């Protein structure tokens, strides 16, 4: 397969990144999936990312360790309580404490480095600016800015050997639309993990913002939610 068909896909094991991987697969890319253990309390997502890598028969799945708990500042990496049972209006008021400082910038930078080595001009990320928790690094203007920077930052792009494109196929879709699209592509959402505060056994709490948005997505899509919640 031509090297131009390589794609680095950022994979968290959640609904969005797994759907983005399905899209990349459907388009015929040779997938190199990239995940991170960054000190997050919801590290069960990495098991989901491994399952996605197996199902989509990726060329290689790499997990990189970065200890963002040393930086802190987020309910996902620090001793800060994860918000529970918030309504959608409350979720939309400001940036929540589950925001991890500069996370997508860090992840995309690693993806950029790997893409240059692989001679891959495409990086897929499942960011979404509709049904999301208000994170600034999920917005279209952020992606545009990072893509511009990426093409100024690497030897391959400066020498004119490649042009980096940050692929964001889900950025303007609702969670329901994403789920319906993934379902049409055969995504098994039972393998995915979204919860910010799972039980020791990996059961979803059902009350954090991510769980609430996940439930809403399946409900509006008219598709049965396969998630194993603590209250199931």
Number of strands: 5
Our count of domains comes out at 1
The share of residues in helices is: 25-40%
Class per helix and strand makeup? alpha/beta
Would you tell me the overall average pLDDT? 94
CATH superfamily: HUPs
Characterize the quaternary organization of these chains: single chain
Question: Total number of helical segments?
Answer: 8
- Write down the secondary-structure element order: EHEHEHHEHHEHH
Biggest sheet, open or closed, and with what strands and sense? 5 strands, parallel
Uncertain runs? none
- Using only C-alpha atoms, the radius of gyration works out to 17 Å
Q: Return the CATH topology.
A: Rossmann fold
Structural overview:
- 36% of the residues lie in helices and 11% in strands.
- The longest helix is centred in the middle third of the chain and has 16 residues, at 103-118.
- It has one domain: Rossmann fold (3-Layer(aba) Sandwich).
- With 232 residues, the chain is of the alpha/beta class.
- The protein is globular.
- Helix 1 (15-26) packs across helix 7 (175-184).
Describe the SSE topology:
Layout: E1 6-10, H1 15-26, E2 30-37, H2 45-55, E3 60-65, H3 88-91, H4 103-118, E4 122-124, H5 140-153, H6 155-158, E5 165-167, H7 175-184, H8 209-221
Parallel strand pairs: 1-2, 1-4, 2-3, 4-5
Helix pairs in contact: 1-7, 7-8
């Amino acid at each position: 397969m031509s090297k131009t068909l390589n794609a680095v896909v950022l994979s968290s094991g959640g609904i969005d990144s797994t759907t983005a991987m399905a899209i990349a697969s459907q388009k015929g890319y040779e997938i190199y999936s990239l995940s991170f253990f960054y000190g997050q309390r919801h590290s069960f997502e990495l098991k989901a990312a491994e399952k996605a890598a197996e199902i989509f028969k990726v060329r290689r799945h790499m997990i990189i360790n970065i200890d963002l708990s040393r930086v802190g500042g987020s309910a996902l990496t620090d001793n800060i309580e994860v918000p529970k049972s918030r309504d959608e209006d409350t979720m939309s008021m400001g940036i929540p404490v589950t925001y991890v400082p500069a996370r997508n910038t860090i992840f995309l930078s690693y993806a950029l480095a790997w893409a240059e080595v692989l001679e891959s001009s495409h990086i897929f990320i499942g960011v979404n600016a509709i049904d999301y928790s208000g994170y600034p690094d999920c917005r279209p203007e952020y992606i545009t800015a990072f893509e511009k920077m990426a093409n100024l930052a690497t030897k391959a792009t400066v020498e004119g050997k490649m042009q980096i494109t940050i692929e964001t196929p889900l950025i303007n879709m609702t969670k329901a639309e994403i789920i319906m699209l993934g379902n049409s592509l055969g995504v098994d959402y039972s393998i995915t993990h979204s919860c910010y505060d799972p039980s020791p056994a990996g059961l979803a709490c059902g009350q954090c913002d991510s769980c609430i948005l996940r439930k809403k997505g399946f409900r509006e899509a008219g598709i049965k939610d396969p998630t194993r919640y603590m209250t199931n």
